[in-house]
Amino acid sequence: MNQETDEQVRVRAILDRRPGAFEALVRDYQKLCWHIVYRMVGQDDAPDLCQETFLRVHRLLHQFRFECPLKAWIGRIAYTIALRHLERRRAAPTSYLDDEVEGAIEPPSDEASDLDAIADRQHADRLREAVAALPAVPRTLVTLYHLEELPIPEIATITGMNEGTIKSHLFRARASLRDSLRRRGVNEP
Amino acid sequence: MRTPERSSAIARALAAEQDGLPKDFATQVARLAEAAAEARSSKRNEVALGLAFVAMIGVCVVGWLTLGASESVGSQWLASILRLAASQPLLTIGIAGVALIQVLIYRRRAASQSFDAH
Description:
The complex is a heterodimer of chains A (189) and B (118). Chain A is mainly alpha-helical. Chain A has nine helices and no strands. Chain A starts with 5 loop residues before the first helix and ends in a 6-residue tail after the last helix. At the A-B interface, helix 2, helix 3, helix 5, helix 6 and helix 7 of A face helix 1 and helix 2 of B.
């Protein structure tokens, strides 16, 4: 017997216009949407674009074929809307990393532990400022990877980038954050 | 290429940020989405009704041409209708008025249903 997954049940409930079904979906994914859109376009336009994202999700949900997690599909819509908004504003995301150079930036050792040590609670504000100072795309990738804890393949689905490019962006962003923290006077241990 | 290690420091720093969405964001968006879906559905119904009307007229015309053509030659059938309409102007205006009122009633009902749904 073909057992429906939770996502299929949920999507069916929305398509059947069951009361509260879509509202629950929005509630579950609004943070993800916010993280993507806010990191891409900033505070001012983010609420409207989040709303646009979920209206589009509602309109296109019948086309969702469960080929990827629903979360990634929604994230993809949010990312696309944010990207188009940036293009319209003629402030295309300034990628400081060409897709072709992936692999060239991998550091010799992972710097997670030293970064974690640097950025303890009292330095969280500086770290947030440093993240905010990153270009739009790496800033979004950092959020999706470290905060949302999405696996790289899901981030690839959302952004349409290949996995190597995403990893390069992440390594580069980490290096940039570390430098930024040092410049802001946060001493390495 | 190896996978980067996740940083709990970055996660903690970013998690401390508040999102800028209103508290009832989900409710608002769900209401808007439902309204948009209702509007799309209403438009589809109107288009379907219009097509059905056109199809009905088509069937009538074909029927007239098939069955009535032998009695009236060429486009005389149209001329005979126009003559009939001209000879009974009050009747023609009455029928047109009733049709117009029906259309307006339908549109008003559709609009109020859409409004109630929101």
